[in-house]
Design goal:
The protein is mostly helical and about 90 residues long. It has one domain. It has helices spanning about 10-25, 35-65, 75-90. The radius of gyration is 20 Å and the shape is elongated. The two termini are about 25 Å apart.
Length: about 90
């Protein structure tokens, strides 16, 4: 599982959950581990989307803030941001 330093703790927690579910399956097969795994996948996907939104926000702030001078014209910057948003929504 590839991640940055600030996401390492979360990644390790997901690995621990996976291992505990595997152990639980062996000890208590009646436990609905598939449902727990699906919930963990949903959480992981949500966290990934949050990270993508943060990246988009950082990009917009970096390139379009009033404090920074950009070498790109405003129309080109706008198209760049639109491209990022479209890529995220796919």
């Amino acid at each position: 599982m590839a991640c940055t330093g600030d996401q390492l703790l979360t990644a390790v927690r997901f690995l621990i959950v996976q291992r505990r579910l595997a152990d639980l399956r062996e000890v208590a097969p009646e436990v609905d581990a598939a449902t727990v795994e699906q919930q963990a996948r949903t959480i992981r996907t949500s966290l990934g989307r949050i990270n993508t939104v943060k990246i988009l926000e950082d990009h917009i702030r970096l390139h379009m803030s009033g404090n920074e001078k950009s070498s790109m014209p405003a129309a080109e910057l706008a198209e760049d941001v639109i491209g990022l948003v479209r890529a995220y929504l796919k």
